[in-house]
Amino acid sequence: MTGRLPESPTQVLDRTRPLKIFFDGRPIDAFEGDTVASALLAAGADTFSRSFKYHRRRSASCLSGQCGRCTMNVDGRMHVKTCQTAARDGMVVEPQGNLERDTKALADSFSWAMPTGFYYKMFYKPRWFWKRVKETIRAMPGNMGEVKPLAARPQFDAVNLTPELLVVGGGLAGMEAAITAAQAGARVVLAETDPALGGFERFQGDAGHRRAEDSIRRLQQHGTIKVLTSTTVSAIYPDGLAVCVESCGGDEKFVERSHLVRPRAMVIATGTGSMPMLFAHNDRPGVLLPEAAQRLIELWGIEPGKKVLLAGGDDYLARVALQLLDKGVKLAGLVDFRAGGLDEGLGSKLSEQGVRVWNGYTLSGSRGSKRIEGATLAALDGSDTQTVPCDTIVASSGRYPRHKLLGQIGARMVYDPELHFYLPDGLPATHQAAGRLLGLEDPEAIMAQGRLAAAAALQSLGLELAAVEQDARQQLDRAAALQAVALQPMLTENKNKKKTFVCYCHDVSEANIEQAMAEGWDNIETCKRYTTATQGACQGAMCEANFAHLMARKRPELGARVLPTTRPPVASITLGALAAGHHDHPQRSPLHQVQLEQGGQAARMGAWMRVMDFGDQEAESLAVHQAAGICDVSMLGKFRVFGPDAEKLLNRVMTKKVDNLAAGKILYYAACNQGGILIDDGVALKMGDHDYFVTTTTGRAPVTEEWFSRWRREEDWQVWMVNLTETRAGINLAGPRAREVLALLTDADISDTALPFLNWAWLEIAGVSVIAMRMGFVGELSYELLCPSSQAVFLWNRMLEVGEPLGLRPFGLEALNICRLEKGHVVPNVDTDAFTTLFESSFGWMLNRTKTETVGKPILDLIAGDEFTEQVIAFSIEGRSPVADGSLVVNGPRQLGRVTSIRYSPLLGKTIGLALVAPHEDWREGGKVRLWFDGREVEADFAKPPFHDPAGERMKM
Amino acid sequence: MAFLINCPNCGHRNPYEFTFGGECKQAPGQDADMKAWCEYLFFYENMPVFQDEWWYHAMGCGEWLKIRRNIATHEIVEV
Ligand code: FES
Ligand SMILES: [Zn+2]
């Protein structure tokens, strides 16, 4: 397969625009219009991949995205179907594994070691065996490639569309349906898998090409038809959502775009595909499906081979033979397995051109190593066998509807033994099928049927298109209506069944299926699971009908040739396409930028970007103890809760009682869920009558809002909440000199008598009106200042200005963490998890025992006094320890829990931490806590926090 | 997810905008025992028929909606 045929109108190449792609490091010449696969085939490539189980050589065989044998690594992305990917200059294409020297290809000779139902047998018994071999087995599959990090993160887009009609398939029938609907005023989305419209006609010679072009021209006159090419409809869900994944070409910033189409009606015109033929070694490079041969010569001007043998059982194949002859391709002959043989007219046309026709024969095998070198034929009556030299076999059992989407809409595919074809039954009126999918062959009939389908679909929406319908019906009657499209795999016994592949994706042979049936798996649904046939990447597109026929022939009493159930997606879908449209933007505090300018290092923490440190977390924490520091705490959730029922709501969600809260006092509360699990803590301030200001833990604002309003809605209380999280920034000013700093910026009385610990006041600081709260999170004299966001940067800078001479410095989250650990403060959801009750998390003292309406109270009452199942403990290690967050707490071979927070405290000269652990006798004064880190045990001392200032005097200064 | 929720405030919206709040259930009374609470907290009817459930319009108006939905077909009859 080298060089190109002369130019023709059907070709999609722009020969004035040559380009180069790199395959395995070698440059390959191609043209604009080539796909990666066509460029490789033109350059003579044979092997595209190695098979999953036996590492057999496999090659592109369908060139329409169905078989999945052409997948490679393209520009770093894995498992890309090269036949569906436009070649671009400079593209880097790499096979997934070593194509030429695959050491695991030995597996092919040891196929007896991998019996049918391998997975079930392997994973079962004996247990020690699986343990030993699992790593080897996991490394075995072929064409898996190697995951390498990508230079740039690929981007995926998502778009929502709501047309009246979605047409799936841009062939003659689909285009006709779209035009009909557009003429009636409907908005239409037309999705086509190929990069161009035209469908099957694109490669039916010049006549077919003209027909397609004519339809495309008429289609383009309608502005209300949105055409999506290179788009695969991968799933239709019960209420009609169709997920259409477009692969974006060229200079687009996105790799793929997922169109979420919710139409009111649908026309499915997905056409047919050929089923491969069953003969020994039917998977060798050089075995092609007829459509693939047609595409090669018509679209890209590539000869499929130097000597081509055709084999099958319908007249379509003879037409492909004539098409190949017409382009000057040499044929080795044509094998027709029908008893009646080939249509006489076509037969004589072929023999006129010197093509040998074997009527009543079938293929029993292929010969060759890297590529086909010949074929063996067998007469169906067993009277004769022959060997024919050839380098390419174009073979098919017959055509088969691409019916997968119909199954997802609820249709059942019923086998018609007269037509040898599956037809849909039970489609809802809003969803119509059209075109070749229904077994039509004649282009006029196909077009008429497309119009009919659109009319019927729109009629189900109440749009009368009687005239169109009548007209189409007449045309359909005139045309040669349903034609026998044979799908009749000719199954000879006389061949090597072990190497006759039914399912290529998973290397399931005819022999495997026979064995599975002999073991009793004779229902198609169980047999498919047992053998994994039809469950590979092609999702049955290459094997389903062969599989069904094979089973039906072995067990005729099963009756109809049932197809396995179809489920979304019909083709493999990237995770990127599924995740598309969920845009993730971390929140930034109003003080974010100014801190970065001052040397802050930021990192993502949950929903927020947070400044972790200003270069030296330990020095920052010492400044808080020795002088003063300021820290951005804008991420605290902040709410105004007000209305006649405000108290009812707060008493419901908080562990403490809010009624007696005095003006100027800070109420520190915890919150539980209905199971008594600690979920949050924060403070409440009384701002006026039935008017409160409430804070929640960092980053929890959205959840709090959801939680509070759920209770409001359940009880229909008259209470409102306003989320002030983003309108109020927060600065924590802490340290023994904090008051001195503040005094430089305000005239207000901020003495300990005027504003004592756990009190708050409205203050004017540097002219900015703030809520100032005396809190103790870091264990020193500290003020949490909540100011309008727009004034936060000003206030921050003013505090730095006046504070720096006193030793004040900004500190980040890390220093904050060190300080709160020195105090032994537990942070909900960091030091606790979704199973830690209020009691276990050491917050039990915060529960108001007499208030009954608290969420979680009934359960807490029931478990009060029970033994803990887990608890939060503190520990310390002398000096600096490398043990990190998340390390295990162990006791011999037993895991007791994990370290939730651990930091080195420069103040104490110790490493201190908290752990969430199961109860144990060692959790007592003098007990040891054993941590598992980096493969060894590290001993720590159980400790009773706080580590620093146990009497709590410093924060009350 | 393949259905839309018709929010009284925001119109037909993708369910990804919502947080699912579970089946609408009656909480046990104040002096119910542990068994009743466990049933309430951890067990669901989950029958393939219409059920009443909570949905929170997190990426919309922020309202909790009570929805009657057929969990087998996703058909929604009442918001
Ligand atoms: S050749 Fe690409 S999927 Fe078949
Ligand atoms: Zn809403």
Record keyword descriptors for this entry.
heterodimer; A: 957 residues; alpha+beta; Ubiquitin-like (UB roll); FAD/NAD(P)-binding domain; 7 domains; 6-stranded mixed sheet; 6-stranded antiparallel beta barrel; 23 helices; elongated; B: 79 residues; mainly beta; Folate-binding fold; 4-stranded antiparallel sheet; two-stranded antiparallel ribbon; 1 helix; 6 strands; globular; binds FE2/S2 (inorganic) cluster; binds zinc ion
Q: Topology, pairings included?
A:
The complex is a heterodimer of chains A (957) and B (79).
Chain A: E1 14-23, E2 26-32, H1 36-42, E3 49-50, E4 57-58, E5 71-74, E6 77-81, E7 92-94, H2 118-122, H3 127-138, E8 156-161, E9 165-168, H4 172-183, E10 188-191, H5 205-220, E11 225-228, E12 231-236, E13 242-247, E14 256-261, E15 265-268, E16 272-275, E17 287-288, H6 290-300, E18 308-312, H7 315-326, E19 331-336, H8 344-352, E20 357-359, E21 361-368, E22 372-379, E23 385-389, E24 392-395, E25 398-401, H9 404-409, E26 412-416, E27 421-425, E28 431-433, H10 443-459, H11 466-478, E29 501-503, E30 508-509, H12 510-518, H13 524-531, H14 544-554, H15 575-579, H16 592-597, E31 601-605, E32 608-613, H17 617-626, E33 628-632, E34 637-642, H18 646-653, E35 667-672, E36 678-688, E37 691-696, H19 701-715, E38 720-723, E39 728-734, H20 738-743, E40 760-765, E41 768-774, E42 782-788, H21 792-803, E43 808-810, H22 813-822, H23 857-863, E44 871-878, E45 888-891, E46 894-905, E47 910-917, E48 928-933, E49 936-943
Helix pairs in contact in A: 4-5, 4-10, 6-7, 7-8, 10-11, 12-14, 17-22, 18-19
Chain B: E1 5-7, E2 11-13, E3 19-23, H1 34-42, E4 50-56, E5 64-70, E6 76-78
Antiparallel strand pairs in B: 1-2, 3-4, 4-5, 5-6
FE2/S2 (inorganic) cluster binds next to loops of chain A.
